[in-house]
Design a protein that fits this description.
- This protein has a two-stranded parallel sheet.
- The longest helix has 36 residues, at 27-62.
- It is mainly alpha-helical and 239 residues long.
- It has helices at residues 27-62, 117-126, 137-165, 171-194, 210-219; strands spanning 105-106, 232-233.
């Protein structure tokens, strides 16, 4: 700052000129001082304002809080909670997971069930007149094997009796056919249900040779998932 009387350089804020002793409280000098101070304030203001704008428009709004790792992407709205591994898409406990969305299995002791030979015979007689459920391949084919073995043994006995008595004996075979007719029809219908077909297709047996071949092919097909006839067999301990 210069003294207006002697043009001597004096420090800012000095009240009297060191050269001429004049008072420096003149309004013009004060105005110059205020203008210079105001200029320096203006120079330092933009960085503060820029920093504040960065704080509002940068990290808080466009950074990690809303669009980053905080709320929207990986947090509660757009991340693993709703659209990720949490509730809606892939969550094991929520909408489409194994608990709520999965069709389910039969976990009881009855049909349908993957069984061995002994269990198949047991279920065969337990479902003697059951035309509404389902039966797996193991249930059906083990039961069919049982019927074949019993029929073969009865035929052998009848043949021996026929040779001994000289009379054609078929009474045991006829009784066996009557005893096995209803449960065999029922398990065939349940096997059709298990592959997703109506039980009325069992009438294909009325077509000689061709109808039986078609049914045999169908009876060899694997089970389908849950359908109108109930749950599929539990995949544990499959045979």
């Amino acid at each position: 700052m210069k003294c207006k009387f002697c043009n001597y350089d004096v420090p800012f804020g000095t009240k009297f000129c060191e050269n001429c002793g004049a008072a420096l409280t003149d309004p013009d000098v004060s105005s110059d001082l205020n203008a210079q101070n105001q200029g320096m304030s203006d120079i330092s203001a933009p960085p503060v304002q820029s920093y504040n704008n960065n704080a509002q428009n940068g990290i808080d709004q466009g950074g990690y809080s809303q669009n980053g790792y905080g709320q929207q992407n990986y947090g509660s709205q757009g991340g693993y909670t709703q659209n990720g591994y949490g509730q809606q898409n892939y969550g094991y406990g929520g909408g489409v997971g194994y608990n709520a969305g999965y069709t389910g299995y039969n976990t009881g002791s009855g049909s349908p069930k993957y069984v061995d030979f002994g269990e198949a015979i047991k279920l065969y007689f337990q479902n003697y007149v059951n035309f509404n459920g389902r039966s797996t391949r193991s249930e059906y084919w083990f039961a069919t094997l049982f019927i074949f073995i019993v029929g073969f043994c009865v035929g052998m006995i009848e043949g021996m009796l026929s040779l001994t008595t000289g009379t054609d004996i078929e009474i045991f075979s006829k009784l066996l056919e009557l005893a096995f007719m209803i449960p065999s029809l029922a398990i065939g219908i349940r096997r059709l249900h298990d592959i997703g077909k109506s039980g009325t297709w069992v009438l294909l047996n009325l077509i000689p040779i061709v109808g039986s071949i078609i049914l045999i092919v169908w009876f060899c097909k694997p089970s389908v998932g849950q359908n109108q006839w109930g749950y599929a067999a539990s995949p544990k301990n499959q045979y």
